[in-house]
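Standup notes
- HV: blocked on the assembly model, inputs below
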Amino acid sequence: MGLRVLQLSDCHLSAKPDKPYRGISADANFKATWKAARDWNPDLVLLTGDLSEDASDASYERLASWLPAEPPCLALPGNHDDPATMARWFPRGPWDGPLAYESGEWLIVMLNSALPGRVEGGFSAQDIEALRDVISASTCPHVLLALHHQPIPVEAPWIDRYPLSDPQPFLDLVDSEARIRCVIWGHIHHHFARERNGVLFLGSPSTAANAVANAERFEADPAGPACRTLVLEDSGSVTYGQVFAATL
Ligand SMILES: [Fe+2]
């Protein structure tokens, strides 16, 4: 049992389906990843940014067309996305402040850490207060937060140059709210897991192209595209894994 959550991230689709991304087909790799992941039977799909490479309507339209109406799909933007464009195709997102989604014992909050024209991310003081208000308004005993940028270093210099900048107010909130069990993000194009003060911090792989861990520069991981699985138990415990793409 438990809530089965699938995290799809960093799809990097372009307006033209045949435009290569890091030398591969982002379209083919997403389809291969989704083909494998849908058999995992998720209850909920989370899209955690850089869905598009060029923020085009055409890229979002294709992605939206590949995903079924059920299970529900929540989305948040990354540095490559345009929130206003993305919102037309993925209406359930943090377009007017944090998006709260409750299921059973869990509150899931989707956050917008993207800053216009910047690769790194950030939250304003108002963003932090809005997040605090959303959590306070819920009576769920367990909370998961999702954003695009890594709030802690992931020991990969190529992407640690572009983190959530000034993360301390966000980390202070995580430390002060005892119901937060898990923080997830995309952006880093590899699997990362760390427990911090009793909270599970998880970076997701990309459905397009991944890097080997601890890379100075982006170096393709031969394991290929992948996505994150999470099982959120009623007890508050979290089990995580990865699904790798079906045959490309
Ligand atoms: Fe990103």
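- HV (later): unblocked. Residues 49-50, 78-79, 148, 187 surround fe (ii) ion (CB under 6 Å). The helical segments are 26-38, 57-66, 83-89, 125-136, 157-160, 168-176.
- Next: hand off to the docking folks.
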